[in-house]
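Suppose a colleague, Dr. K., hands you the sequence of a protein chain of 293 amino acids and asks what its three-dimensional shape might be. Before reaching for any lab equipment, you can write down a predicted structure in token form. Begin with the sequence itself:
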Amino acid sequence: MTQTFSDYTPAKVWEWNTENGGQFANINRPIAGATHDKDRPVGKHPMQLYSLATPNGVKVTVMLEELLALGHIGAEYDAWLVSIRDGNQFSSGFVEANPNSKIPALFDHSTPEPTRVFESGSILLYLAEKFGAFLPTEHHARTETINWLMWQMGSAPYLGGGFGHFYAYAPFKFEYAIDRFAMEVKRQLDVLDRNLADRSYVAGDEYSIADMAIWPWYGALVKGLIYDAGAFLSVHEYKNVIRWTDLIAERPAVKRGRMVNRVMGDPASQLHERHDASDFDTKTQDKVAAAKA
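The predicted structure, expressed as tokens, is then:
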């Protein structure tokens, strides 16, 4: 039977209902700006990252770890944890870093005046251009890489804010919304799967920022790691995406990057903050718990 909600008619003028439900209702609001004063911490490294290991956050920590693996010491970074469920993104210090109050946000302190960079795609482009890595210089290859980077930036909101919200987080199951966004996510997976049929990586034969942007979202999806929706979306059908996902996941820098600012899962995989490369060996949550025992 098709679900209907004929008793709802939009008001002439929308009004904010603070009791709208859903897992993130307590932090969603229709206005911008800070809700409280709190200084933004600054560590010793050139790059200061304020983030959380959501798919958008993982993009940047993977990029930084990949740059360090190539020997770019200027990419050394401090990664500060921003708890979005606690509303840390609305502190005055974070709003200075990103007026949109979304993670991740970055300050580059190697420039004469610290450079603010926000939005994950912008951060990837900024770092790629600054260090001359993971973004081809040849015209067609560069353009193709940016094509796919922007594909991710435009597509993922339908996956996260669309499908993910209504399938996993909304206060009730709304058939129309779930069906609409499931159809779109499967279309996106098909786009990606067809593209990867004759390419090793998303933009061609070289690993790039396009892979770093897409993998945390769509790689996790085809592995059933987000929204518990693998069976619902029949993700096993997308063989090329799965092959590519597994290839990316084996990279040592990717393994490190996905641990940074992580607060869920195996304690051994959680490095809440990263201030030195040695933290991966000494400050994961299993080690922290053992030291307190």
